Description:
- The complex is a heterodimer.
- In chain A, 75% of the residues lie in helices and 0% in strands.
- By secondary structure, chain A is mainly α.
- In chain A, α4 (77-108) packs parallel to α8 (168-196), α4 runs antiparallel to α10 (213-241) and α12 (262-272) runs antiparallel to α13.
- Chain B has helices spanning 2-21, 39-56, 67-80, 91-99, 107-117, 122-125, 150-155, 165-175, 194-206, 224-239, 254-260, 272-280, 282-286, 318-328, 331-341, 364-368, 384-391, 394-404, 409-424; strands at residues 29-34, 60-65, 86-90, 129-130, 133-134, 137-142, 145-149, 183-186, 264-269, 288-291, 302-303, 305-310, 373-374.
- In chain B, the strands form 4 sheets. In chain B, strands 2-1-3-12-6 form a 5-stranded mixed sheet. In chain B, strands 8-9-7-10 form a 4-stranded mixed sheet.
- Chain B is globular and about 85 Å long.
- The interface between A and B is large, with 41 and 45 residues.
Amino acid sequence: MSVTPKIKVRKLKHSLLNKEDRNLLLFILIPVVIYIFGVQGINFLWAAILSLTSETTIRGIGDFIGFKNYINLFKDSIYQETMLFTLIYVIGTIIPKLLLGLLMALTLNKPLKGQNIYRSLLFLPWALPTFTSALTWRWMFSDIGGVVNYLLMKVGFIDYPIGWLGTITLARISVITVNIWRGVPFFGITILAALQSISNNLYEAAEIDGATEWKSFWYITLPSIKSVVILVSIVSAIWTIGDFSLIWLMTRGGPINATHVFSTYSYIEAFHNLNIGKGIAINLSIVPFLIVFITLSMRYIFSSEN
Amino acid sequence: MKKHMMILIILVIIVFLAVTSIGVAEQGLTVWMKKGFVEEQNTMFVEKVNEFAKEKGITVNVNMIAYEDFFPKWAAAIQSGDVPDVTYLGYEEVAQFQGRGILEDLTDTISVIENKSGDFFEKSLIPITFKDKIMAIPFWGEGMVMYYRKDYLEQAGIATYPKNWEEFREFTKKMTNASKGIYGAGIGYGANNSDAEWLSRALIWSFGGSIFDETGTKIVFNSPETIKAVEYVKSIFNEDKSTPPTAMGWDDGGNNTSYLSGQAAIVFNVGSILKAIRAEDPELLKVTGIAPIPGGPAGSFTMGIINTLAIFKESKNKDLARELLVYLLDPEWYAEWIKASAPLAIPVLKELENEAVWEDEYNKPFIDTMKQFVFSGYKGPVQPASGEIANLRLLNNLFARVILKNVPVEDAVKEFTIEAEKILNK
């Protein structure tokens, strides 16, 4: 039973592709393969080799030290703190982005006057360059002339300006807030596209059967958009794990390493402290986790589809 | 025909990729210079280098780079071997890099310059001389001073600026009015903040503490004097609350912004603030005073900052690079460049000490700091370890841990000592 479908697929492939088409396929694939292996693959391999060398080198290949850089990472308190904050950062941003994005999509899916304008405006945070967003928010959070402190003082919530980027907890909350603000539109637009592909017949049938709005949402809407939601969450999680610009521009990973994610800590170690091996090891240390995460997620998605 | 056409197209793509990936070797010089706060000093420098290139009939590529952006560029250049011919280096970087044997010995070039342009200040050569070899050319110095708001002192009923750290603490507490957004002590400890790193050293030294002993072979940071200095700073932040709310997240521009906006009553910085006040806020200049950094039980110190130009051993145009360095220290042009940059840049050539620009009441404290210059290896000589400790911002981390995480001062000092010893013993 399990063998036959594969053979059928193979036969189908052969019948679709003639010699010219196969050549065209190769013609298109070869440059891509050259790029992936030649540019990215070699760089990845070189980086992996450097991560196995001594941390004091600043040129060429230093002494081979095996996995010492990786082992030492787990004893490094800043690395531990970076791991913890990255986890907080990912979970603390994905869930709100998902909920707010879903809300945004459900709202924009309704027939509204000026719908297109709302969509454009709501999409703006994601469309703005990270540089612009980060510096604008940094100004907004500033204790000198920052609008957040101004408004809070105006309504009487605080008596004097707060250092939003100056203490550990507040700095973490601030960067998480900005990440959510930037990321909600991506969730919103993607989920909206999924919502719009759901057939209205399903809702009409449910209405005829006496289903409430909530039941329609729970039994029709959510299952229909489940795959898209999972996929967009995975993509966003990967982007968030690799975030650099937002953190660097707002806090440089401070105060006192409290808002470091892997990329910013790696940057500091490799380029400021000239510990190239350690810097690369920091970034490569999350690759196994990412591979497992992506594999399990994809497997879940495809099994759900089946 | 179709098959041959496809093969031809593939070959063309491969050849194109190969050719465009090969860098065409540039003729002439590549110069990396620190982008100064003053636009005129940057423009003058680029023009001077271009003049040199024209006279020599060569091409030159001058990159003006923000200090913070230098580190990844140096790392990449050193790793790849594709180094600039002439590069800016702070003296800590000179110490670090010469320790790894990648800088050219410029002792001879110093002699050539001194024959042509007069002697260098001895203090400008001390931090870049290792075993009698001078590993860079000093180009300008920077002195840290205390800026204070005369009007805030007056409003608080204080007659004059603080001359020692006890007065500093007392006065800044009196001047702080958080509801008006005014804070007496404009001190911050953000990641990579070099102002904080230099001020902390000057403060610890004035309390009698130091990182190194006189020989530079031992870390003596863990001492009652150091602990007292750290506790003093902690109390300004956590007890007195005399510092601005975001001070722990400040970069090098943080104290500038704080003073220029009227938030901080006293800050410590080099000449950048004065330059900005003169250009943008003449009213603020009228209420600004400039004085030396307060002293402590062991005296008053200024962490010396010597900015240099150096040549990597792997430079492909070393002779031309040396000629450029001599050219840049042409006394007439250099005097004009210093005048345009003052007081942010202090001259390294002795004969410029008495130029009219330094007679100005606001500029004079800056050139006076040269006499108090002490360098990162104090109480010993500058060395690779002192440069590395400074560049790793270990002191910033120490204060941040003590202030933000409430790590006991003794523990934080012990941890610093252990880290410093690891670096010294590398």
